[in-house]
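Input:
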Amino acid sequence: MYKIVEKREIAPRIKLLKVFASEIAKKAQPGQFVILRVDERGERFPLTLADWNKEDGTITLVFLEVGVSTRKLGELGKNEVILDILGPLGNPTEVRNYGVVCVVGGGVGIAAAYPVARALKEAGNKVVSIIGARTAELLIFEEEMMMFSDEFYVSTDDGTKGYKGFVSDVLKILIQKGHRFDLIYAVGPAVMMRAVAEVTRPCKVKTVVSLNPIMVDAMGMCGACRVTVGGKTRFACVDGPEFDAHDVDFGELIRRQMAFLSEEKMALECWEANKRSKEA
Amino acid sequence: MSKWDRLKAVPMPKQPIHIRIRNFDEVALGYNEEQALMEAERCLQCANPQCVLGCPVEIDIPGFIKLLRDGNFREAILKIKEKNNLPAICGRVCPQEDQCQKNCLLSKRGDPVQIGRLERFLADWEREHGVEIPEKLPSTGKRIAVIGAGPAGLTAAGDLAKLGHEIVIFESLHEPGGVLTYGIPEFRLPKRIVQAEINYIEKLGVVIKTDTLIGRLYTIPELLRDEDFDAVFIGTGAGPPIFMGIRGENLSGIYSANEFLIRVNLMRSYLFPKWDTPIKVGDKVAVIGAGNVAMDASRCALRLGAKEAHVVYRRSRAEMPARKEEVENAEEEGVIFDFLTLPIAYYGDEKGWVKRMECVKMQLSEPDESGRRRPAPIKGSNFFMDIDTSIVAIGRRPNPLIQQTTPGLKVAEDGTIIVDEKMRTSIDGVYAGGDIVTGEATVISAMGAGKKAAKSIHEYLTKKI
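Output:
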């Protein structure tokens, strides 16, 4: 059981939880994730660590409420508990001094990009950050990202803040303007990571993406998270979650992410109906 | 009740087929007292019992049967528990027909004594009448870390706890039990039975820490150095599923048997949407492989509403590795067996969901030097099967994480951990047993290994005092 010590809504439907999980906090590294199960009947689902604190023993989780699991998680209040948290999982980001790195975060993925940007900055890199969301009010972790960025760019799909367009458009412009990067790191929705991969493919800059397929056990036992990378099947949970973006079959990833879409929709309807009847 | 016949086993009462394929309740209902006594009466009480030699944990089989026969159920179950901490589980899932019962003298002329069913009867009787917790030896002050709460780990932990050691089991999943919990379906091994057996191990003083992945949260060197453990037992079992590596295998609707069974058993997706984890099977399901896991998967698929479940196997009926009893249950329930058939590709719809499976017919060669008949494809025999789901049940590799994070641990080429006859690994104080050492095997062989390791660890720690 893992107690929630802080809870904030940092944007509409996006919540931040600080959870007491001292063993995980002690071991966590950038790029790693945890598996959660909110309650007895809950699903196991992964969230990338947005932060951790060895001293006070907390980990920080940031998530968008979309399905039953994230809705349930979002309903928990301060001092309530999450039944299960397993982690840290996945291979950490390879943090070293590459030179100039560009960290790209999209949507709720900005929170996942944050510890990576921080670690890369602390490793001596020049960090150029691009963060984006659908609209201004959904932008999260701006200040945090800015703190560890030498250059900082914002985009929104609707133009309510920063560049009107996608983060990949901003990246493209920077590259066209002559920015040279030694590494691009992107995390966010699969379509966004695919767009970033396509932008950097012609200039052959090493591009790393952090993939977010469906996972169940997340320890290499089930293969639900399998992705095709460079023509080979890999398990994102244990072989990743980070892979070379130019080798990832994003079409397959996106299709596999949607495998249970109708079931997820039905589960959410049931949950909402249940909740309404309980409230009434 | 039918007439007693020394050569004929008392049949196992089962849920009627048409009812059981609509639920996940246990299929085999277990003997009642009368049936158990009748079956026990068949035992010849051999002076030189061969059955015991077939038991990986050396239960005194004639001994417990005699006690049972005399109506002394309490003493009978304690006799079993001298050797076996998990009898309700073994009575249900051990392949007795290849072990104790295979050696039964009666099997030469008729049915062997149904030792497993008697073991189950006693274990269930004890659970209903109250479980006695044996006295522990005085504390030795030694601490042992057991990695994995599956059959090997639970057995080693139970035995070591009885000897007075302090045991912590580290389990990576949210529920203990290993394959007993995530792999074997409810209708074959109800989870309340597993839970009861685990409660017994906990009552012996064993602490089980779930959600703890050794290799990530702590490494073995850290357990020994920083966490004050005097010895470690590795029982991490089988892990990554093997896929065939054929075209289209990553389409949606193609599960590893592990994923399929984890969803159904551990995550209770047969209760979706009351429980949150979904599963989707569609009308026509192909299960690739013909081991016990394939039987479990195909029977689950039928219970989840599949109209047809096919076991697709590249060899013939005779080579099927599944237990006969499981094959019979699957056939009774309507599972269709497509022998001498090998899938070679999958094709999907525009959403990436599997729709067709291309197969090729196989033929078996003459037996080679090892006596094995190899399957070979028949040219031009390709054909298509329309399917909505495929479940790949062709085996698993050993879990790799411990090996990757434990410097100096000797590992075989196939990824299994190398141990000597005392279950010692290449690192002092570190022992291993179960599927992580042998590759995929049975629950009882993992338990046997756990027992053996417990004995060695006890020797090691008491010598050190």
